[in-house]
């Protein structure tokens, strides 16, 4: 399987969040979580002055564009290209061109190699977030997304929770 890369998709202006939601829903429905890893609408924090009051707001960095971290193949290309609101991939003709690492760093997205000392079946403790302090057994791991799944008890039932590698540590 080829490695996932970041691609830029052109959308109708104002449809960025709808496109993100539609692609996220399609990923879930077609079980493409291992091929389309992340969909992002890049935002920046801006201070606006309105009626003499400074207000901090989030504004789209690239109106009309959505960034997608995915493994490019015929299925993923078709899913993204045929999402309502998408006008096409950025690149010459119909050939999508991935962003390189230097372009990604300029956007604040860094390529990081995380080395983990745990695997499927190991017991881990959650270090941060809503499940902080929870102990669970690793059920599955996704190296490309740098995430893992553990089962936690919620309302008397075992419920799977997806966490990033950096949110957990192996218990001794």
Automatic annotation (TrEMBL):
InterPro entries in UniProt: NGN (IPR047050), NGN-like_dom (IPR006645), NGN_dom_sf (IPR036735), NusG-like (IPR043425), Rib_uL2_dom2 (IPR014722), Transcrpt_antiterm_NusG (IPR001062), Transcrpt_antiterm_NusG_bac_CS (IPR015869), Translation_prot_SH3-like_sf (IPR008991)
UniProt entry keywords in alphabetical sequence: Transcription, Transcription antitermination, Transcription regulation, Transcription termination
GO BP term, example: transcription antitermination
The NusG-like N-terminal domain, residue ranges: 3-111
Pfam family, one: NusG
GO CC terms of this entry: cytosol
Function statement: Participates in transcription elongation, termination and antitermination.
Family recorded in the similarity comment: Belongs to the NusG family.
The name this protein goes by in its record: Transcription termination/antitermination protein NusG
């Amino acid at each position: 399987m080829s490695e996932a890369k970041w691609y830029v998709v052109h959308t109708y202006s104002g449809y960025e969040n709808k496109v993100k939601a539609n692609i996220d829903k399609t990923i879930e429905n077609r079980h493409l979580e291992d091929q389309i890893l992340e969909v992002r609408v890049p935002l920046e924090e801006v201070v606006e002055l309105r009626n003499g009051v400074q207000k901090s707001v989030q504004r789209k960095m690239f109106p009309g564009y959505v960034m997608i971290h995915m493994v490019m193949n015929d299925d993923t290309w078709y899913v993204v290209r045929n999402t309502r609101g998408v006008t096409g991939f950025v690149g010459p003709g119909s050939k999508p061109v991935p962003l390189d690492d230097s372009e990604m760093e300029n956007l604040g997205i860094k390529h990081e190699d995380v080395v983990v000392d745990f695997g499927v079946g190991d017991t881990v403790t959650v270090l941060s977030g809503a499940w902080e302090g929870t102990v669970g057994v690793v059920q599955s791991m996704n190296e490309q997304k740098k995430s893992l799944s553990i089962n936690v008890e919620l309302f008397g039932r075992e419920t799977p929770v997806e966490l990033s590698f950096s949110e957990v540590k192996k218990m001794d």
